[in-house]
Design a protein that fits this description.
Nucleotide-diphossugar_trans; Spore Coat Polysaccharide Biosynthesis Protein SpsA, Chain A; about 280 residues; 6 helices; alpha/beta; binds 2-acetamido-2-deoxy-beta-D-glucopyranose; two-stranded antiparallel sheet; transferase; about 30% helix
Length: about 280
């Protein structure tokens, strides 16, 4: 009889210990969850994607990036700036439009992001730059990681920067119609604004760390240099920026692909002053 009671008591004791243990685990998990969600509330990323005509790339990009950023607990909003006019492509002006039309008041940092580049390495993350070495700007695709561009000063592809840093830089020059060089000029703006620039460290996968969707047979680059274009685009432009940009948004809609978080699309008609840049149309 005595033995049986003892047995029951130790059984109860064991049950209580197990319950306490489970309670501890639950409490710890909830603290961790709360910490994680606090991190998520602290910073929100705005991804600006300059765009035209490449729906096959966009339809791969949106679901891929949504998963990539959700896996890393990075709350984000994507704005696709679609150049709907018939001028030559103007990546810098489209990035300026993305900043001005972002529609994400709690986004405190931005990724200027090519639509044809997908990060594909487990250690690549898109942190708030000041949290990563105290930088204002973080180049995610430096020349030793970008699949295609390897010159020392290269700063295109994917660039993270705080909203303040972009504002301080004055934005991109609007004079670059056609392919290339606007990112080199933007780098000079960042440096002259005294912003600190960091780069992602090299990875063992090197230039295979990103998937380059670009298919030059389908989307030929517009590398023509016409009229006074060389003169205006091979030097620092001190006349134009996001404050002097003229454009019209002709349509806005949201685009959800494959269950990914919907992106905002703005269809934009840029203004070209043919007196200054006659090469905006060829
Ligand atoms: C990313 O890399 C892995 C191999 O490391 C590969 O299997 C996968 O297809 C790549 N993703 C894309 C989108 O190409
Ligand atoms: C980066 O790492 C890859 C792989 O280890 C290597 O092949 C490449 O030379 C490195 N690049 C630089 C700039 O260190």
């Amino acid at each position: 009889m005595q033995l049986k009671l003892n047995g029951q008591r130790s059984c109860h004791l064991l049950l209580i210990v197990v319950l306490l243990f489970l309670l501890c685990i639950a409490l710890r998990q909830s603290v961790q969850d709360r910490l994680a969600s606090k991190q998520m509330i602290d910073h929100r990323l705005l991804i600006i994607v300059p765009f035209r005509d490449r729906f096959s790339e966009l339809s791969a990009f949106l679901p891929y990036m949504s998963k990539f950023l959700n896996d890393r607990h990075r709350p984000h909003h994507v704005i696709v700036v679609d150049q709907c006019d018939s001028f030559r492509f103007n990546r810098g002006a489209l990035l300026n439009v993305g900043f001005l039309e972002h529609g994400c008041s709690d986004c405190d940092y931005m990724a200027l992001h090519d639509v044809d580049l997908l990060p594909n390495h487990s250690s690549i993350d898109y942190p708030f730059p000041p949290d990563k070495g105290g930088y204002d700007v973080l180049h995610v695709t430096p020349p030793y990681l970008h699949p295609q561009y390897h010159y020392k000063e290269y700063m295109g592809g994917i660039l993270l920067l705080t909203r303040e840093a972009f504002a301080k830089s004055g934005g991109f020059s609007n004079l670059f119609w056609g392919w290339g060089r606007e990112d080199d000029e933007f780098r000079l703006r960042l440096m002259e604004a005294g912003l600190s620039i960091g780069r992602l460290r090299n990875l063992s996968s090197g230039t295979a760390s990103f998937v380059h969707l670009h298919d030059p047979r389908r989307h030929a680059r517009d590398s023509r240099i016409v009229g006074n274009q060389r003169e205006l685009t091979f030097r620092r432009d001190r006349t134009s920026g996001m404050d002097s940009l003229r454009y019209r948004v002709t349509r806005r809609y949201s685009l959800a692909i494959d269950g990914a978080q919907p992106a905002s699309v703005v269809c934009v008609h840029l203004h070209c002053d043919t007196g200054v840049t006659p090469y905006c149309a060829v």
